[in-house]
Amino acid sequence: GSFEEHLRQLAAAPDQAAETSLRAQRFLTAFVRPHDLHVAAAKVIVEEIARVPSVYKRPYSAPLWHHPLRWALGAAVRAGFDPSLGATGRRRSRAGTGYRES
Fold first, then answer.
1. How far is CA 42 from each of CA 11, 27, 67, rounded to the nearest angstrom?
2. Could you tell me how far CA 42 lies from the centroid of its own chain?
3. CA gap 23, 5 in Å, rounded
4. Tens of pLDDT along 63-85?
5. Are 63 and 56 in contact (CB under 8 A)?
6. What percent of the chain stands above pLDDT 90?
7. Do 37 and 28 form a contact (C-beta atoms < 8 A)?
């Protein structure tokens, strides 16, 4: 179970292709080495990092209905609405969410 043992197993897996099941082979090619088992990972990482400045990300713009909804929710909170209260007027249970009741 050590991390070093895990790394050794991953490194040896491509060399043991004949002994590796089809499922493990699919995992290796899809997740561990998606560019091919024989392509050096460092080369792929360097190429992807070099490509980052050329990636265009379209600016996010909220759908039109967000604006009136955000305004209405803000007005409700300013008027004293407590979003943590359910329809019963009591605080909703957060059991299983990792939150503690106050």
1. 14, 19, 45
2. 23
3. 21
4. 999 999 999 989 988 888 887 77
5. no
6. 21
7. yes
